[in-house]
């Protein structure tokens, strides 16, 4: 997320780069962002798998995939409306001009990375042990089967 944030914020500055360097720099930024996003996506689903009992993984993975699909569908809509606004708003302030969408993506990526670093503990980055699996199953059966999935494992 932090690599993506740096690349998003750097893209508007590419306008000042020499003409021969613009395309290679833009390509480098896009490649870095895509690699960072692929790594983050994979890591998120590994942590989701590690946070729930085996019998609940399908439902939780389905919910997570549905959320990811919704964000992939709504992202271009929000981005295009924001970019159109930044082109036609008439505000000549830094950050509210054509670079608004890139700065917004950078801020969102940095905020996501900072939240993940501060709040996600190591317990989601470790395999689900039999003791944790038993505790998660017990928690799920105590509240009708949805507790462990809704609370990220609860153990």
Task: Describe the structure in your own words.
The structure is a single chain. The chain is an all-alpha fold. Mean pLDDT is 78; it is low at 145-155. It contains six helices and no strands. It starts with a helix and ends in a 5-residue tail after the last helix. The longest helix is centred in the first third of the chain and has 33 residues, at 19-51. 72% of the residues lie in helices and 0% in strands. The radius of gyration is 20 Å and the shape is elongated. It has helices spanning 2-10, 19-51, 57-88, 100-119, 130-142, 147-150.
Radius of gyration: 20 Å
- Major sheet, described briefly? none
Low-confidence regions: 145-155
Share of helical residues:
over 70%
Determine the mean pLDDT: 78
Q: How many runs of DSSP E, i.e. beta strands?
A: 0
- Amino- and carboxy-terminal Cα gap: 26 Å
Order of helices and strands: HHHHHH
Can you describe this structure in just a few lines?
With about 160 residues, the chain is an all-alpha fold.
Give a quick set of tags describing it:
155 residues, mainly alpha, elongated, disordered C terminus
Please describe the topology of this protein.
Layout: H1 2-10, H2 19-51, H3 57-88, H4 100-119, H5 130-142, H6 147-150
Helix pairs in contact: 1-2, 1-4
């Amino acid at each position: 997320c932090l690599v993506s944030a740096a690349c998003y914020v750097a893209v508007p500055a590419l306008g000042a780069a020499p003409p021969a360097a613009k395309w290679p720099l833009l390509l480098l930024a896009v490649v870095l962002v895509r690699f960072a996003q692929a790594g983050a996506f994979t890591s998120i689903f590994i942590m989701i798998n590690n946070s729930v009992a085996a019998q609940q993984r399908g439902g939780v993975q389905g919910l997570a995939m549905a959320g990811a699909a919704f964000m992939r569908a709504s992202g271009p809509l929000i981005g295009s409306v924001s970019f159109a606004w930044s082109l036609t708003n008439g505000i000549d302030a830094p950050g509210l001009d054509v670079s608004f969408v890139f700065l917004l993506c950078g801020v969102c990526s940095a905020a996501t990375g900072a939240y993940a670093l501060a709040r996600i503990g190591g317990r989601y980055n470790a395999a689900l042990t039999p003791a944790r699996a038993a505790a998660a199953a017990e928690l799920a059966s105590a509240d009708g089967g949805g507790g462990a999935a809704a609370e990220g494992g609860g153990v």
